[in-house]
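Audit log entry. Action: structure prediction of a protein-small molecule complex. Ligand: zinc ion. The ligand was supplied as SMILES and no pocket hint was given, so placement is left entirely to the predictor. Protonation state taken as written. Sequence taken verbatim from the request; no trimming, no tag removal. Recorded inputs:
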Amino acid sequence: MSTATVSGICPECETDLTVPPVVTGETFACPECMLTLRVEGVEAGQLQLSMVEVQLRDWGQ
Ligand SMILES: [Zn+2]
């Protein structure tokens, strides 16, 4: 009936991603480029993904 996974495409490396159902706002790492992706929503079984800028701490002067 319903699919157990959803799919999307990494906006960075364009790898096809198939992941278990995720919640909007959840983040996961692309297995290819290791970029952190955030789920903006799911549309017709396709993940809408955006890149998350991971800020490295830079407290130095
Ligand atoms: Zn990627």
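Audit: result stored. Residues 36 and 56 are 13 Å apart (CA to CA). The longest strand covers residues 36-43.
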